[in-house]
Write a structure and sequence with these properties.
The complex is a heterodimer of chains A (about 475) and B (about 500).
Chain A lengths: L2 H7 L1 H19 L3 H22 L8 E3 L4 E3 L1 H20 L13 H18 L3 H19 L6 H32 L4 H11 L4 H18 L7 H8 L2 H8 L1 H17 L4 H22 L6 H22 L1 H27 L18 H4 L1 H15 L7 H13 L3 H26 L13 H14 L7 H13 L3
Antiparallel strand pairs in A: 1-2
Chain B lengths: L5 H16 L4 H25 L8 E7 L5 E6 L1 H20 L8 H20 L3 H10 L1 H11 L4 H30 L4 H6 L4 H18 L8 H8 L2 H26 L1 H6 L1 H20 L4 H20 L4 H32 L10 H4 L1 H15 L5 H16 L1 H26 L6 H4 L6 H19 L2 H18 L17 H13 L1
Helix pairs in contact in B: 1-2, 1-4, 2-3, 2-4, 3-4, 3-11, 3-15, 3-21, 3-22, 4-5, 4-6, 4-11, 5-7, 6-7, 7-9, 7-10, 9-11, 10-11, 10-14, 11-14, 11-15, 13-14, 13-19, 14-15, 14-18, 14-19, 15-17, 15-18, 15-21, 15-22, 17-19, 17-21, 18-19, 18-21
The chains are: A mainly alpha (about 475), B mainly alpha (about 500).
């Protein structure tokens, strides 16, 4: 393979890496702060768009690269096709957000770009070291992003908390990697899969390695019991950053977990399936029950994301092409719903322009701001998985995969979890539609964010069912490239 | 047959009108809603005219693949046709009933009702399993909003209870559907209706579907959401709830439980009969002691729905046809009774039976119509209630005489609470000054109640109009489930009297 072929195969990562480095310099030496941050944001979105387009090239079919450390296949392309646009939305969502504080807004898009490269590496990695490098690149950028409003105590606390717990998780992950390496003698996924196929999981060291690796990944996807950081970090981080955390990194981590489980640990499905099933059910029920008492909308959405990840894990537990395809489909729709919901949270500003996060400030929103209320209601019903909204379909797919894999009891338990979870989504709708109006929010002129909310709302509306055909076949092909 | 996609139009008209309503003022929204529902009624009537009772089982079929495991597949048989007619007939009446009674957030209200209509028609027309589920569940959202925004004092609790109760019932059905699709390899309802699932799987599938339909219908003991929802919902909401939403449960039994799981259904016949028997007696007794008019009618709905389950699980033609007619008749009669309650509630703003009395003096027109509907609820011959209850009990008697005895007892109790209700409201002297001062029906109210009264009499005097479209489909259903039909205890056989004895009898009779 010539250098040029390699460059084409990793074009998305190259575009973002080179562009981000340039933008970093621009951000550091730009004269006019407001103008610089504007230009950098626009260019960053452009880079992400370019990177997404470059997936049409060899980046989606080149296969194994760099001696099997990296893989540019359909699966990675699907993941990147979700990750890059969500990162772009996170940049657009922050438009005007940081101008009010003392921070330099221009570094925010750059950090997102670095994080995006990390995520791209995560979903393409077929080697434990590549996996670790990608994960750390993504996380380091994320730690900085969480504490981006450094003058705000909550933001600083969120960053510190995220860093300490994240470092612990990285340690666990590394320990797992070292055990796997020690007992199989290889870092590559194919080699590990061959070792599992040959010896099974008889060696206790191998089993420990598997468990530790999965624990590290579970921390990144914030699956129960490694979810404790999520509500605190989501609450403390600036809202655009929270929107970012809840979307792209989740997708990257879930899909990384999917590749690890189905590829590297493929022959050991009996060993990891019970772990995933436990994490799935625990996430669904804890996410649903713990959200009951929340009054902060960002904490509530944090539990909602824990709950939703649980459903994606049901698809993973099912395994096989159908299971992997349902996970991909689920994450694609999940990202749209979550970003839509957080974009709506960005509109929650008091009369003085300060962000409001208490859910009771939404009271009677349907009378003061009917459009915004309708959008939030659509996202809530969709996150709850109530038909005819599109959020129902991915849930149906994961349950379908579980039933086809013979895990009927898991599907029944999961679906009962949707009813438990429906309660707090209904609570938001109740506050907006049934309660008397509270003090209205400030009127903002944010046409761009408004258009994004509209787009997300249209996708999760029943019109989204028209996407089942194309998105479904894309997910099927992506899942097929794993096997 | 026409080239027009009639069923899609029936769904699209209210849907589009519902979206338009959101962007206009209150008065315009009222008119748009009325015109759209009347247009749907006209379209429905036209479709009834085009429907060929001797034709193929599925008519007006449309099928557009959407990719994945779902298709926009629509089509109706006679059973669905009748239920669609019921929905489109009640809808304009609901809009009319809300014309003045709703003065807050009218555009959203009309929009919710139109959305509801689109989803209801969707439920009865869907021929794809998942499409059916989407319509079936989708109805929860508008109804949740209708109860929660425009309901009475306890509306929040009632709306939550309605939503979560029915949702929990339905999600188990979804798992069963996934299993069925994996097993049969198709999502088309007509194909699934002909697929023979293994008998031991049928038991679980039947239970999962039962969980959903029994809550929706509702059957004792999962009926407790119904009185709350009915009492708190605005009048038109109660009409739609009782008139159409409850019928989705019965429709589900006819369309899914019986033809798809005949052996499973047969196994649970005693179970269904016991629950229905308890429902008839228990809810009738509960209805007797209610002080709230709407609650009384809500409990009477549960009792009437028990006749539906009795008839359906009798596994014979009379029972199933009777159940169908009970559903249609109950849809009209309970809808009308809720409207009657609404009429006097709009004047006095209380549902306490104690506060009324003697309204026949100052509201003769109202008393007349109210009596007609009371009699129809009791099942007086000549009204629609009689036809349905009689047929369904004849069918039940063939299957189990005990069930029939309990069922007929329910009719007596039904007469007791309905007549007592009528007596306390219409006769005697007015108990309060306000009750004595209520004016008689306005022109608008006549327009709401008189058409229902006419159809109730039509169905009672000439039920053939309503039986003809469903006859062939009930025949197919009976044929399908015959192999599993449990043996009844009646064992009716036509005797062959001796010629001489017969002549003797005749002679003695003549002598008298």
């Amino acid at each position: 393979m010539s250098l040029w072929d390699l460059a084409l195969a990793i074009a998305p990562e190259l575009i973002i890496a080179l562009g981000a480095t340039e933008l970093l310099l621009h951000a550091a030496w730009g004269k006019d702060r407001a103008r610089t941050s504007r230009t950098v944001a626009i260019l960053a979105v452009g880079l992400l768009a370019l990177a997404t387009l470059s997936l049409l090239g060899p980046a989606h079919h080149a296969g194994p690269l760099l001696e099997g450390q990296y893989r540019a296949d359909m699966f990675a392309a699907f993941a990147k096709a979700i990750i890059f646009p969500s990162a772009a939305v996170a940049i657009l969502a922050a438009h005007n957000w940081f101008d009010r504080g003392t921070e330099h807004g221009a570094e925010y898009p750059v950090l997102i770009l670095f994080s995006a490269i990390g995520m791209a590496v995560m979903v393409s990695s077929t080697n434990l070291i590549t996996l670790y490098v990608g994960l750390e690149l993504q996380s380091l950028a994320a730690y900085v992003l969480a504490s981006y409003r450094r003058s705000d105590e909550r933001s600083a606390e969120a960053g510190l908390k995220y860093f300490v717990l994240g470092a612990l998780a990285s340690g666990i992950l590394l320990y797992g990697i070292s055990l796997l390496y020690g007992f199989t003698g290889t870092m590559s996924f194919t080699g590990i899969a061959a070792a599992f196929a040959r010896d099974g999981v008889q060696s206790i060291g191998l089993l420990f390695g598997l468990v530790f690796l999965l624990a590290g990944i579970a921390f990144k996807v914030s699956a129960v019991p490694f979810h404790m950081w999520t509500p605190d970090v989501y609450e403390g981080a600036p809202t655009p950053v929270t929107a970012f955390f809840a979307s792209a990194p989740k997708v990257a981590a879930v899909l990384l977990g999917t590749r690890v489980c189905l590829d590297a640990f493929g022959p050991a499905i009996d060993a990891w399936r019970q772990i995933i099933i436990f994490a799935a059910l625990a996430s669904i029920f804890l996410g649903a029950i713990a959200a009951y008492g929340q009054t902060n909308i960002k904490r509530l959405l944090a539990y909602s994301s824990i709950n939703n990840i649980g459903f994606a894990l049901i698809g993973l537990a099912a395994g096989g092409i159908a299971g992997a395809s349902s996970v991909l489909f689920y994450m694609a729709v999940y990202v749209v719903m979550t970003l839509g919901a957080f974009l709506c949270v960005l509109w929650m500003r008091g009369q003085d322009g300060e962000p409001v996060e208490n859910i009771h400030s939404l009271a009677g929103l349907s009378q003061t701001r009917p459009g915004l209320a309708a959008a939030i209601a659509i996202f809530m019903f969709s996150l709850a998985g109530i038909p005819p909204l599109f959020g129902f379909w991915p849930k149906l797919l994961v349950f379908n995969a579980a039933v086809e894999a013979g895990l009927v009891a898991l599907a029944v338990a999961g679906i009962v979890g949707t009813v438990v979870g429906a309660y707090y989504y209904l609570k938001i709708v109740k506050i907006m539609y049934f309660d008397d109006p509270a003090e209205p929010f400030a009127r903002l002129r944010q046409p761009l964010q408004g258009a994004l909310i509209l787009l997300a709302a249209v996708i999760v509306s029943p019109l989204g069912y028209l996407l089942i055909g194309p998105l479904g076949s894309f997910a099927d092909r992506a899942a097929g490239s794993l096997f | 047959m026409t080239g027009l996609p009639l069923l899609t139009l029936l769904i699209a008209i209210p849907l589009v009108a519902g979206i338009v309503c959101l962007f206009v003022r209150a008065d315009a929204a009222r008119w748009i809603a009325l015109i759209a529902t009347l247009a749907n009624l006209a379209l429905g009537a036209w479709m009834w005219g085009l429907y060929d009772p001797e034709g193929p089982q599925w008519q007006f079929v449309e099928n557009v693949a959407l990719g994945g495991e779902i298709a926009w597949a629509l089509g109706i048989d006679g059973i669905a046709l009748m239920l669609i007619m019921l929905s489109v007939f009640l809808m304009p009446i609901c809009i009319g009933a809300s014309w003045r009674a709703i003065d807050r957030r009218v555009p959203e209200y009309m929009s919710a009702f139109l959305l509801m209509e689109a989803l209801m028609v969707g439920v009865f027309t869907a021929q794809d399993l998942f499409l059916f589920y989407i319509f079936f569940e989708g109805g929860l959202i508008p109804m949740y909003l209708i109860i929660g925004i425009w309901g009475g004092a306890e509306r929040i609790k009632a709306s939550y209870k309605f939503f979560l109760y029915t949702l929990l019932g339905s999600v188990l059905m979804l798992i069963a559907m996934l299993y069925m699709v994996a097993e049969a390899g198709t999502t088309a309802i007509p194909e699934l209706m002909a697929h023979d699932f293994p008998a031991d799987a049928q038991r679980w599938l039947w239970l999962a579907f039962f969980a959903s339909f029994a809550v929706k219908l509702p059957m004792w003991p999962v009926h407790t959401w119904l009185p709350d929802a009915h009492v708190q919902a605005p009048t038109a909401g109660s009409v739609i709830l009782a008139g159409v939403l409850l019928k989705m449960g019965g429709y589900g039994f006819i369309r899914f439980s019986l033809p798809m799981f005949p052996e499973g259904s047969a196994m649970f016949v005693p179970f269904v009969f016991v629950l229905s028997g308890i429902a008839v007696i228990y809810t009738s007794l509960v209805a007797l002691v209610q002080r709230d008019m709407k609650k009384l009618i809500a409990y009477s709905s549960v009792a009437h729905m028990a006749f539906v389950t009795f008839g359906l699980f009798a596994f014979n033609r009379q029972g199933i046809e009777g159940a169908m007619i009970v559903m249609l008749s109950h849809g009209l009669v309970s809808g009308a009774l809720f409207l009657c309650v609404g009429v006097i509630y709009d004047r006095m703003h209380t549902r306490e039976i104690e506060r009324y009395g003697g309204v026949s003096n100052n509201m003769p027109g109202y008393a007349l119509l109210f009596m007609l509907f009371t009699m129809a609820a009791v099942g007086l011959p000549g009204t629609s209630g009689f036809v349905g209850e009689f047929l369904s009990l004849v069918g039940t008697y063939k299957a189990s005489s005990w069930a029939a005895i309990v069922g007929t007892t329910g009719i007596i109790l039904g007469a007791a609470y309905m007549l007592w209700l009528y007596w306390r409201i219409a006769f005697g002297a007015a108990r309060t000054k306000e009750a004595a001062a209520m004016p008689d029906l306005s022109g608008r109210e006549w327009w709401l109640l008189a058409p229902i009264g006419a159809v109730v009499l039509w169905m009672g005097v000439y039920p053939e109009s309503f039986m003809r479209p469903i006859r062939a489909d009930v025949g197919r259903l009976v044929e399908r489930i015959e192999r599993a039909a449990p043996e009844g205890d009646a064992r009716l056989t036509a005797g062959s009297p001796e010629a001489a004895a017969a002549a003797d009898d005749h002679a003695t009779e003549g002598a008298h």
